[in-house]
Structure formats: C-alpha cells, structure tokens
Design brief:
One of its GO terms (biological process) is Mo-molybdopterin cofactor biosynthetic process. It is found in: Cytoplasm. By secondary structure, this protein is of the alpha+beta class. It folds into two domains: 101 residues, no CATH class; 141 residues, 3-Layer(aba) Sandwich (Cytidine Deaminase, domain 2), CATH 3.40.140. The protein is 21% helix and 29% strand. It has a six-stranded mixed sheet, sandwiched between helices. A four-stranded mixed sheet has the order 4-3-8-5, covered by helices on one side.
Length: 300
Amino acid sequence: MGRITARRRVTRVRRGDGPDVRADVLAVEEPLEIRVGGSPLTVTMRTPGHDVELAAGFLVSEAVISARGHLLAARYCAGAVATGSDGAVENTYNVLDLTLAPGIVVPASTARAFTTTSACGVCGKAGIDDVAAASCFDPAGDPAPVSAEFLLDLPARLRARQTAFDKTGGLHAAGLFHAGTGELLVVREDVGRHNAVDKVVGWALEAGRLPLRDTVLQVSGRASFELVQKAAMAGIPVLSAVSAPSSLAVDLAVERGVTLAGFVRGDSLVLYSRADRVVDAAPLARDCAPGDPVRPIRDP
C-alpha cells in the first residue's frame, strides 16, 4: 500500500537566524484511477489509504450505489511499474477496479471529463446540471436533535484524532458522530476534503449503516457545495464545519433539509439552515427576511 506521509529535505529560514537544513514530513498526494468493470470512470488526487472506502463513497455521492450489496468486489490492477535495473515490478496501488452488482449501471453523465484535483470534488463534471444528483436517502425528515454545546465540542474531538495531520499539517479530516450518544464513529484524513468525506461515507456503506440517520458530520475546513451534496446523498442530517460555507452550499443545504453549521470554533457557531435541529437555537430559528440586519462574519 502507498504511504500517507513522505520525508523531504527542506531549508527553514527564521527572521534573525541562518538557514536550517532538515528533513520535513509531508502529506502524500497521488492519483487514484477508479474503474468500474474495467472501464475508467474518474481520476482523483488523494492520500493513499482507505481507497475502497473512497471509491465506494464517491459512487454513493454520484447516486450509483446505495447499499453494501451493490459493490461486489474491488481490486488494484494495472498500476504496476518496472523498478530497478533487474526489471522488478512494483504495484503502485493507484488503479482500483470495482465490480458492481448485476443491474447497477453507471450513468454516462457520471464519468468525469478530466482529473479531479484534491481541492475540488465536482470540477470534472460535464455540466452544472450533473452536480445536484438525486438521492434515495432524504435527510430532511430526520429530526436528529443536537445541542450547540455538542457541536462546539466536535472540532476539538476531531482534531484529537487527526494523527496524520499532527505529522504533516497538510491533511483535511472528516469525522462522523452519533447525534444521540455523541459517539465518534469514524475519522478519515486526506489531502482533499471531499475525499475525506467520501472515505467516511464509504466506511458507512461497507458497514451497512446507510442511510446515516441521526449523525453529524464534522469537517476540518470550509463547507463547500460538494460536501453538502455528499452529506445529503448519504442521508446525513447535520454538517458542521470550522470555517465558512459558500452561498451555493447554503442554498443546497436549505433545499435538501440539511442543518449546516459554520465557523464552529471556540464558544460560537453560525447556523445557516435547519436551525430547528439545534435545541438551544430552535426558538430563534427562522428564514432571513428582507430588511434583516447584515452582520458579516469573518475568519480571524
């Protein structure tokens, strides 16, 4: 299997001091080609590890599969390269071929037109209409009540489990928590925030836990459109992020009935949709109306 970290020689410079040459630990970023039945589907830039979960979660977010029995097998293939003077062959583990159950078909619109980067989960889509896939899971009807105190604790609980981030400082993370018991169910890290979420959803698929009712998804960065989409596709009713959401992310959260919390840090958070699920905020929850005061919120 590929490594999640790599060492590189660097020169560090501090004000008032001379250069310091040392080894640094970096997050590994490598391509993963996902194939279905031998046919290329997409290429994503990711941190190696939990690749089957990543591929499975990607197919869930694309409305291709929705149950554990829909994915029959996954195997690494065609990633072998010759190494060394003796011609020894080493598998790069960067090509993963999936076998789906009979009758499960990948729509033509799902195939990416080009490589998906680690920064963007939807930029390879053929058109904007392909982005908002319809899910067989509906998070809107899930009450999933939580408290603001519970949400405010999640970033620190997620951070405590970011072991690869501790070494590199360069990985996003996604953690899934049970809204009722507070149990941390799973944490995944990756150079791509959307990949980390796909790995969480793929874990849930393999564990037979979809739809993810009564759960909260905590992410380490901002809340983008594709993260709201992936949460909705998996039936996750609450998405919490330590940074800002985009306008399109908020629009989709409202449309899909997902509670979206942003700027979750310290002793405050901002609710952008379905505030009724947050019991401390429910009496104040209502839609914005014309003439409401605007108070900009910024990252410190």
